[in-house]
Specification:
Blueprint lengths: L4 E4 L3 H12 L4 E4 L3 H8 L4 E5 L2 E5 L3 E2 L7 E6 L3 H11 L3 E9 L6 H8 L4 E7 L2 E6 L2 E6 L3 E4 L10 H7 L3 E3 L3 H21 L11 H17 L3 H4 L2 H11 L6 H7 L10 H10 L5 H16 L6
Parallel strand pairs: 1-2, 1-6, 2-5, 3-10, 6-7, 7-8, 11-12
Antiparallel strand pairs: 3-4, 8-11, 9-10
Helix pairs in contact: 1-5, 3-4, 6-7, 6-9, 6-10, 6-12, 11-12
């Protein structure tokens, strides 16, 4: 019998993983915030995956954080700002050799979780898969992508990658996962904040090419200084490709702001600016972008971190 996958976070990616694992017959349990959310979930039939317009529902069992069952494998699919607190709540249930797969945007939250759980194996993940929720307990698979996983301190791949293969989750074990995370951080910093400030889809940034190019130059300088030259390579070209390929899409940060939700600014642009300060690196355009974004969030009554 396969080890149970406990999934923390019933957002789009958490639900996308849960439904595909369940479809493959892999045991999955969904950890919900509290008794009220569990009652709401149990009133339905389970989790629904909509793929190419066809909906299938999977009866994934739900539970609350204080359920007594030990946790051997945990997919942490909540927002970056919730990750450490949510994992701390589950700490008494984690097996001594538990494995955590950390599927957060940006950087910073992964190290915070790993520092809290020195005995656990923390595997970092970076995904380009597209999904969105069109209702409670429903997820629409919007775009095929890829998930890279890796453990900088323990490069041997885990056996449970077979579960992902069976579930049809495209993935690769990366020996340079930090490079991938830094690269994605830079891409997000070059695109997401500007879409909020200019209230546009990703394609709207084609009207701000000089600003995008300047940010990419500063981000490349930051990556080099942080020991990530591979992440800096051809950054501007890839940012332009992403803007064109996703021209009709709204960035995740734009969607958060439009829905009056907290953003992950501290783990994206905030993290980049803190890294620049730590290295005594002057990046005026990046730092000014951070100031402008914080002012925008404050004006909307949203958290600035």
């Amino acid at each position: 019998m396969s080890t149970t996958w406990h999934i923390l976070g019933a957002g789009s990616l958490g639900t996308l993983w849960a439904t595909r694992l369940a479809r493959a017959g892999v045991p999955v349990r969904l950890i919900l915030r509290d008794d009220a959310r569990l009652a709401s979930y149990n009133a339905g039939q389970g989790l629904t995956l909509v793929e190419q317009g066809v909906a299938h529902t999977y009866p994934v069992p739900g539970e609350t954080p204080d359920s007594p069952e030990p946790i051997q494998r945990l997919l942490v699919a909540c927002k970056a700002y919730d990750a450490e607190r949510a994992v701390a709540q589950l700490q008494p249930r984690l097996a001594p050799d538990a494995e955590l797969i950390l599927l957060q945007n940006g950087l910073g939250s992964q190290d915070a979780v790993a520092a809290r759980l020195p005995q656990a194996r923390c595997i970092f993940a970076s995904s380009t898969e597209g999904a969105f929720r069109d209702g409670d307990w429903r997820v629409v698979f919007a775009g095929h992508g890829y998930t890279w996983l890796g453990d900088a301190s323990h490069p041997t791949p885990p056996l449970w990658l077979d579960d992902l293969h069976a579930a049809g989750i495209p993935h690769d074990w990366s020996t340079d996962i930090l490079t991938r995370l830094w690269r994605k951080l830079a891409l997000n910093c070059a695109i997401n904040p500007l879409t909020v400030l200019y209230a546009c889809r990703n394609g709207g940034l084609q009207n701000h090419q000089c600003e995008v190019a300047t940010l990419c130059a500063e981000l490349s300088e930051l990556l080099e200084c942080c020991g990530q030259p591979c992440a800096a390579q051809d950054l501007h070209s890839e940012v332009e490709r992403v803007i064109q390929a996703t021209a009709a899409n709204f960035s995740s940060m734009y969607q958060d702001v439009a829905s009056a939700r907290r953003t992950e600014i501290s783990y994206l642009l905030g993290y980049a600016c803190e890294a620049a300060t730590r290295h005594q690196l002057s990046l005026p355009h990046l730092q000014q972008l951070h100031v402008r974004l914080v002012e925008q969030l404050t004006a909307r009554g949203l958290p600035r971190d």
